[in-house]
């Protein structure tokens, strides 16, 4: 939690003002019972003797002034504290968002998407609530308690001794129960991560779940995680359930002791009724403050657990953009080369083994293989989302580990399997907030075979897309995504199963347009269709992370049985479809 306090430094002056106002408000509120004691013990007897009630009125006005000024001061201080906490947590969220986006893919795999979402949302909310309660009550409470005890000592030392005994007992109970609750709240947030992931998973796949009639199955899985979260919440609730009742019991018992002991002291003439009434008021103030502070500690137990989870993210050192600057480019460097590359996601099971190939500028690489064969992993290494365990990945003779991230990624235009569209216009989705030349979006739409259907939409390029492009068909979405990939005329174009929803005729026109319009762009096409890669200069056939076939279409038809079988089956299916049409 200490690490998060640095976010309040920009608001240090406002924080000091808030502290001063809180202190002033507490001092003003502490004057009210003293004024009441003076009315009862001094002003009332004087009025009885002389008939002059002006002293009573004066003290009454003092009490009203103290109450109104204290309330106004508290209001200003609370407004300032709300501003400070809101802005500080805004800064925490911003830094967390930037840090998460700077982490490597491997680090994000360990963090998980659901945990990142929970830390950015519920955890930051818990920290904001903790900061706010600490500023609003955590500052005022100790001042009221210490000031109240000091005033009470001046009024009646024996009666104050009761409070001096009770406060350490309350403090011990509060600290002890809070320590027990913090680990449980951290466990709760971990389970909440899994619940968030389950909700996210269901929201993303709701169409598939409904289509396969698996709603009951998914509900059962959700119920299991939900039940676990409920159990953890119960244990955390049990840990702090006794906090308020015990503190209230101790304070009420001590209040009863004050009344009884005070009545005895008044009876024997050791004190005055006004002091006892003022004393009871101070005691009531401290009772409310104590209960408020116990509530603050309850919030702290949740906030501290969340603060720890936030600090874990902020302390992570990104490892994806560590450059090895002493790697010199090779003089005969081709456009793209993998040289005996090995890689494993978990460090145990190999996902790629001994991958080697070369591409010259403007050539096309086709990658074919079953799910899990390593196709997307090659792209991840090329973009340096992960680093190879051994071997080299070279671009223009330069090791990707020696190329700055922004420079590396600027070389690529890409469309992935699970790519996304934002809720904005078609133009903005193609430009994607990049500074492209005028007309580049329209040119890209024509190349991607998307211009025709875009023109049919109301507003054309200004047509608004729903979240995820849900108001487009699958083929239309893919063409908009391809337009985005080619809009900046990149050095390398990656199409990861980017035309699977297109009919054969549109797919053929798209491939021809890319070849004609981007002759100097090196293309990497991952596909399930042989027709999408059969004209590639080099085709890799992958199986379990290994290359089982490498060459042109004609060469593979002769040398690779897997490729030949796949091509034969697909060409027969295509021929039947064309005949049916």
Give a topology summary:
Elements: H1 12-50, H2 54-102, H3 105-111, H4 113-138, H5 140-155, H6 157-204, H7 206-211, H8 215-241, H9 243-267, H10 273-314, E1 336-343, E2 352-359, E3 364-369, H11 375-382, E4 390-395, E5 398-399, H12 405-410, E6 412-415, H13 426-431, H14 440-447, H15 451-456, H16 474-486, E7 492-496, H17 504-517, E8 522-526, E9 538-543, E10 546-551, H18 553-559, H19 561-580
Helix pairs in contact: 1-2, 1-5, 1-10, 2-4, 4-6, 4-10, 5-6, 5-10, 6-8, 6-9, 6-10, 9-10, 14-16, 18-19
Any overview of this molecule?
- This protein has 581 residues and is of the alpha/beta class.
- It has a domain at 2-314: ABC transporter transmembrane region fold (Up-down Bundle), CATH 1.20.1560.10.
- 64% of the residues lie in helices and 10% in strands.
- It has a six-stranded mixed β-sheet, with helices on both faces. A four-stranded antiparallel β-sheet has the order 2-1-4-5, covered by helices on one side.
- Strand 7 (492-496), helix 17 and strand 8 form a beta-alpha-beta unit.
- Helix 1 (12-50) packs antiparallel against helix 2 (54-102) and helix 14 crosses helix 16.
- It is elongated.
Could you provide a short overview of the structure?
The chain contains 19 helices and 10 strands.
β content, as a range? 5-15%
Distance from N terminus to C terminus (CA atoms, Å) equals: 67 Å
Major pleated sheet? 6 strands, mixed
Unreliable runs, pLDDT <50, ≥5 residues? none
Task: Compute the CA-based radius of gyration.
Answer: 36 Å
Assigned CATH class of the domain at 2-314: Mainly Alpha
Order of helices and strands: HHHHHHHHHHEEEHEEHEHHHHEHEEEHH
Mean pLDDT, to the nearest integer, reads 83
Structural class: alpha/beta
Kindly identify the CATH topology of the domain at 2-314: ABC transporter transmembrane region fold
Portion in helices: 55-70%
Strand arrangement, major sheet: 6-7-8-3-9-10
Number of strands: 10
């Amino acid at each position: 939690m200490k690490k998060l306090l640095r976010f309040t430094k920009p608001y240090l002056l406002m924080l000091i003002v808030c502290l001063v106002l809180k202190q002033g408000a507490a001092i003003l509120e502490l004057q009210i019972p003293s004024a009441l004691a003076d009315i009862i013990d001094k002003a009332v007897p004087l009025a009885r003797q002389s008939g002059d009630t002006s002293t009573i009125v004066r003290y009454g006005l003092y009490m009203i002034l103290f109450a109104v000024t204290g309330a106004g001061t508290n209001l200003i201080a609370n407004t300032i504290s709300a501003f400070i906490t809101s802005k500080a947590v805004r800064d925490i969220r911003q830094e967390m968002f930037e840090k998460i986006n700077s982490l490597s893919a491997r680090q994000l795999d360990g963090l998980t998407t659901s945990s990142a979402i929970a830390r950015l949302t519920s955890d930051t909310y818990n920290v904001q609530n903790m900061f706010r309660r600490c500023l609003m009550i955590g500052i005022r409470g100790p001042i009221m308690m210490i000031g109240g005890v000091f005033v009470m000592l001046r009024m009646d030392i024996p009666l104050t001794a009761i409070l001096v005994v009770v406060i350490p007992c309350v403090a011990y109970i509060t600290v002890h129960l809070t320590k027990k609750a913090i680990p449980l709240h951290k466990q709760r947030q971990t389970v909440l991560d899994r619940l968030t992931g389950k909700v996210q998973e269901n929201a993303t796949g709701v169409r598939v779940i409904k289509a396969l009639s698996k709603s009951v199955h998914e509900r059962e899985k959700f119920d299991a995680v939900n039940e676990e979260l409920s159990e953890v919440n119960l244990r955390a609730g049990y840990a702090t359930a006794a906090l308020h009742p015990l503190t209230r019991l101790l304070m009420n018992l001590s209040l009863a002791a004050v009344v009884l002991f005070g009545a005895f002291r008044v009876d024997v003439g050791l004190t005055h009724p006004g002091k006892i009434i003022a004393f009871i008021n101070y005691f009531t103030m401290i009772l409310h403050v104590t209960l408020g502070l116990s509530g603050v500690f309850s919030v702290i137990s949740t906030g501290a657990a969340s603060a720890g989870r936030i600090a874990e993210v902020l302390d992570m050192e990104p490892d994806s953009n560590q450059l090895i600057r002493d790697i010199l480019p090779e003089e005969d460097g081709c456009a793209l080369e993998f040289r005996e590359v090995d890689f494993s996601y978990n460090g145990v099971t190999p996902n790629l083994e001994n991958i080697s190939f070369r591409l010259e500028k403007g050539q096309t690489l086709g990658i074919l293989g079953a799910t899990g064969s390593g196709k997307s992993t090659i792209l991840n290494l090329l973009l340096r989302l992960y680093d190879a365990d051994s071997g080299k990945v070279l671009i223009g003779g330069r090791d990707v580990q020696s190329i700055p991230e922004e420079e590396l990624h600027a070389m690529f235009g890409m469309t992935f399997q699970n790519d996304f569209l934002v809720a904005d216009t078609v133009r903005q989705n193609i430009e994607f907030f990049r500074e492209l030349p005028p007309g580049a979006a329209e040119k890209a739409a024509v190349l991607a075979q998307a211009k025709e259907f875009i023109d049919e939409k109301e507003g054309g390029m200004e047509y608004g897309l729903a979240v995820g492009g849900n108001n487009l068909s699958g083929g239309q979405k893919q063409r908009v995504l391809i337009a985005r990939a080619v809009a900046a005329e990149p050095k390398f174009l990656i199409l990861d199963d980017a035309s699977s929803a297109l009919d054969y005729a549109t797919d053929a026109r798209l491939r021809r347009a890319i070849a004609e319009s981007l002759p100097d762009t090196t293309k990497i096409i991952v596909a399930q269709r042989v027709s999408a890669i059969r004209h590639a200069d080099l085709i890799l056939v992958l199986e379990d992370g290994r290359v089982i076939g490498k060459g042109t279409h004609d060469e593979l038809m002769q040398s690779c049985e897997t490729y030949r079988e796949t091509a034969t089956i697909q060409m027969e299916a295509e021929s039947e479809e064309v005949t049916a049409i």
